[in-house]
Design goal:
By secondary structure, this protein is an alpha+beta fold. 21% of the residues lie in helices and 24% in strands. The chain has one domain: Alpha-Beta Complex (phage-related protein like fold), CATH 3.90.1690. It has 6 helices and 14 strands.
Length: 326
């Protein structure tokens, strides 16, 4: 397909077009690296170490004179793997488009922005699916609200979002002895919380007394609150748009370290091989240039339950609240 779909109501050449405005639909409010920070890797596939939690096991360290000190068992070491699959999309820019286009259209720029935006949207869909699937969490690290417990305005008298969120925080802390520092509250959920009496009571004496992600973070003790508002169209190409919020109504909290490092827990990482790039080539029979955007990555929840336990392979550095609102 060319950069501008010829089946649309307009064309690349339009009389008296305004050059100072246009109508577009940006992808904004992505969670992305706020939850799964990128880690640049040297190989497309490889292994990484997972250390055991023997350091939390107390030992008898008393030594009698002339005796040998008690010897402790070393750290258990296991490995997991990643594979940075390539995600690519391409689009054609025809010679006819370049020759006939009017300002402010720019076929090469618009085509590049289109495929790049779609690559990042696909990554966001993958992140959302990974972190909102309860089967990916260890036992006790997920809950689903229903009825009067949901945070909708009709349930203000019966729901308790502050308690629900604190339950999640303490559950994560009990597993990794770190409180989750990042909270993802989808736009629809955030709008329900803005007028919830539990929060209004706590912020009424604050300087601004206007509910915001920053105030929510302060009330609950999170370093950052992310409010994704990105939309998604679930209709088939060419069909009437069926729009919705990508992040829906599920709330996620996680421990996200300030930076990736050795022997530190982390909710998850995006293993990225190489740089995200855009390349171009000529296809003369089509009288077109092809523009392609590519990103090679693997998304992994890396802090997991102990091998051999019922929580093996399950995330322990995060918590998900499903269906926070109806």
């Amino acid at each position: 397909m060319p950069a501008y779909n010829p089946t649309g109501s307009g064309n690349v050449h339009i009389d008296q077009i305004l050059t100072q405005i246009s109508v577009g639909w940006p992808n904004n409010g992505l969670v992305g690296s706020n939850l799964l920070p990128p880690v640049t890797v040297r190989k497309q596939s490889d292994k990484y170490y997972i250390f055991g939690r023997e350091g939390w096991l107390p030992e008898d360290d008393n030594r009698a004179p002339g005796s040998v000190a008690n010897e402790v068992v070393g750290l258990a070491v296991s490995t997991d793997t990643y594979y940075a699959r390539e995600h690519s999309l391409q689009i054609a820019v025809t010679d006819e488009e370049r020759e006939n286009v009017d300002s402010p259209l720019a076929p090469d720029r618009d085509a590049t922005e289109m495929v790049t935006s779609k690559i990042m949207l696909g990554r966001e869909v993958a992140i959302k699916t990974l972190v909102t699937t309860t089967a990916n969490y260890a036992s006790g690290l997920s809950t689903t609200l229903s009825g009067a417990a949901q945070w909708n305005s009709a349930n203000y008298a019966t729901s308790d979002p502050i308690s629900d969120l604190r339950v999640g925080k303490t559950a994560v802390h009990a597993r990794i002895f770190q409180e989750p520092n990042t909270l993802v509250v989808p736009y629809q959920v955030m709008t329900a919380l803005e007028d919830h009496p539990d929060f209004l009571e706590r912020i009424k004496y604050s300087e601004r007394a206007i509910f915001s992600p920053e105030l929510l973070a302060a009330v609950l003790g999170f370093e950052r609150v992310v409010v994704p508002g990105v939309g998604i169209n679930s209709a088939n190409p060419g069909a009437t748009a069926s729009l919705g919020y990508l992040w829906g109504k599920d709330v996620v909290m996680a421990w996200v370290p300030p930076r990736a490092g050795l022997k530190i827990p982390a909710f998850g990482y995006e293993f990225v091989w190489g740089n995200q790039y855009v390349d171009r080539w000529r296809e003369e029979p089509r009288k077109s240039d092809l523009i392609r955007a590519s990103r090679r990555y693997d998304l992994k929840l890396v802090a997991q339950g102990d091998p051999g336990s019922s929580d093996a392979g399950k995330a322990i550095a995060g918590y998900v609240i499903k269906a926070a609102i109806a």
